[in-house]
Fold this sequence. Notes:
Layout lengths: L1 E9 L2 E6 L2 E9 L2 H10 L5 E5 H6 L5 H11 L3 E4 L5 H11 L3 E4 L1 H5 L1 H11 L3 E8 L2 E4 L4 E2 L4 H10 L4 E6 L11 H11 L2 E5 L5 H9 L4 E4 L1 H4 L5 H5 L5
Parallel strand pairs: 1-4, 1-12, 4-5, 5-6, 6-7, 7-10, 10-11, 11-12
Antiparallel strand pairs: 1-2, 2-3, 7-8, 8-9
Helix pairs in contact: 1-3, 7-8
Amino acid sequence: MIIYPAIDIKGGKCVRLIQGRAEHQTVYSDDPVEVAQQWKAKGARFLHVVDLDGAFQGHSQNESIIKEIVKRANIPVQIGGGIRSMERIAHLLEEVGVARVILGTTAVEDPVLLEQAVRRFGASIAVGIDARNNRVATRGWVEECDITPVELGKRVKEMGVETVIYTDILRDGMLEGPNIPSTREMVEKTGLNVIASGGVSSLEHIAQLKSVGVAGVIIGKALYSGKIDLRQALKLEER
């Protein structure tokens, strides 16, 4: 299991949202690159970066920051947020140097592109499955689809996807704990490598997620608010 510190970028700053709502934003740093270096210094092996401007607007205005994070952190970075073309996927993987691209809206709205991306880049393509009330949400969590997270998981697995990032939107940023039953269902019914996200606010939450077989845990607000110490969390990776 891998612990992924989250770096959400909006307007060039490191922020956290509550339940994905842009109006509920807290700025934690004016320098996301410095934040990335801090998590690396504390032992992080992988970073989870979300381009919120890309997610909401469909195009990135944080390119230089993403490049600097990849360069200066010098550990693998996975990134999601508004990635909706093969050109963008290839650019991020081949030129920027990210280790993994996360497709969310594309997985639902353009499955042909997803299949092509997996065929070309294999395990470097992951799918973000974001759910609200057991329905998948897209376009920065603004729109809901008539498909369940598990159904989407099974669908993308047939396309060759190996890894998904599963987020319960109603838990995100709330520090109330992850949705363990839904995460367990995703792990058991899809057989995918599931990276859990949303609501993680204690070492016990991480241990619970590990016990249901997740491949990774993303921690955001709990790190920035001091509820979880990254060094302590990292001790659970191999235990």
